[in-house]
Amino acid sequence: MALGFPEKSADVRLAQYETGSSPPKVDLTAAVAQVLDVSPHALSVPDIDSYVGLIHTLFTLEDNYGLKIARWMEKST
């Protein structure tokens, strides 16, 4: 309701966004983030189902949190 949705439909609309059945538009995501006092990026689900999406997610984790990904190699015997 803090976003201006009618009381009767606010919970249904937000449930649609939460389940992904109806993704919110960018401006609505920004408004939700503002109401919750978080970054709009905190409300998006990273695309890790594709190689490119996974790489971008890992780069973001490295940039924001210093996460380092190392490749472990084993010798075949």
Structure description:
There is one protein chain. The chain is 51% helix and 0% strand. The protein is mainly α and 77 residues long.
Structural topology:
Blueprint: H1 7-19, H2 26-36, H3 51-65
Q: Please provide the ordered H/E string of secondary-structure elements.
A: HHH
List the uncertain runs: none
Question: Distance N terminus to C terminus?
Answer: 63 Å
Radius of gyration: 18 Å
User: What is the helical fraction, as a range of percent?
Assistant: 40-55%
Whole-number tally of structural domains: 2
Structural class by helix and strand composition: mainly alpha
Which features would summarize this protein structure in a list?
77 residues, mainly alpha, 2 domains
Outline of the structure:
This protein is mainly α and 77 residues long. The chain has helices spanning 7-19, 26-36, 51-65.
